[in-house]
């Protein structure tokens, strides 16, 4: 009986500890600024699947804007949204102002998915949203780093990070599309 009681006590302690360590953070706690200077509350995306991607206008991967727009157009009516975050963290490949970036995206790629104001996605000035996306302690999934422009973060309908996609993987890759379509 004493062994059973000790086991029950240990089970209770570990259960409580596991509950305390559970990450309750989501993207819904963040407010960001869109490319036109307006506040964008990520809680308005509750219940949608979200792809967050850091972008740049002068990168070899910049043509991914075309696939991003295609995926957005195909799935925006299916509880899915893409949010672009211009960043100048990789070899100065996004030097423009928000106005210049917005004009470039519209003129060259017809971008209609939400674009946010330029931010830092790594380093000492990392935006709090990207701190959440890259730290397991906050996102509950994994520690990772933004390796280059056009790294994609797939956020589930509950606002939690589900998958990190390499910058080189195209937005219309079957792995991404299968994730969007999955119930």
CATH superfamily: Glutaredoxin
Distance separating the two termini: 46 Å
**What's the level 1 CATH class?**
Alpha Beta
Mean pLDDT: 91
Q: How many distinct folded domains?
A: 1
Over the alpha carbons, how many angstroms does the gyration radius reach? 19 Å
Enter the CATH topology name. Glutaredoxin
Structural class of the secondary structure composition? alpha+beta
Largest sheet: 4 strands, mixed
In N-to-C order, the SSE pattern is HEEEHEHHHEEH
The total count of helices amounts to 6
Strand order of the largest sheet: 4-3-5-6
Uncertain spans: 13-21
Relative strand content = 15-25%
Q: Approximately how much helix is present in the residues?
A: 25-40%
Shape: globular
Structural notes for this entry:
- With 183 residues, this protein is α+β, with helices and mostly antiparallel strands.
- It has a single domain (23-181), classed as Glutaredoxin.
- Helix content is 34%, strand content 16%.
- The strands form two sheets. It has a four-stranded mixed beta sheet, covered by helices on one side. A two-stranded antiparallel sheet has the order 1-2.
- Strand 1 and strand 2 form a beta hairpin.
- The radius of gyration is 19 Å and the shape is globular.
């Amino acid at each position: 009986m004493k062994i059973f009681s000790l086991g029950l006590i240990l089970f209770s302690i570990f259960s409580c500890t596991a509950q305390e360590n559970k990450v309750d953070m989501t993207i819904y706690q963040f407010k960001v600024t869109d490319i036109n200077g307006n506040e964008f509350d990520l809680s308005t995306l509750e219940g949608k699947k979200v792809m967050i991607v850091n972008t740049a206008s002068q990168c070899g991967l910049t043509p991914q804007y075309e696939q991003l727009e295609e995926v957005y157009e195909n799935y925006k009516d299916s509880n899915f949204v893409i949010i672009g975050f211009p960043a100048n963290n990789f070899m100065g490949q996004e030097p423009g102002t928000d106005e210049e970036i917005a004009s470039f995206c519209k003129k060259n790629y017809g971008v209609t998915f939400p674009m946010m104001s330029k931010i830092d996605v790594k380093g000492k000035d990392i935006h709090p949203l990207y701190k959440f996306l890259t730290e397991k302690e906050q996102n509950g999934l994994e520690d990772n780093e933004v390796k280059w422009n056009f790294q994609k973060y797939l956020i589930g309908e509950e606002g939690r990070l589900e998958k990190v996609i390499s910058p080189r993987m195209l937005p219309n890759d079957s792995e991404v599309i299968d994730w969007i379509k999955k119930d």
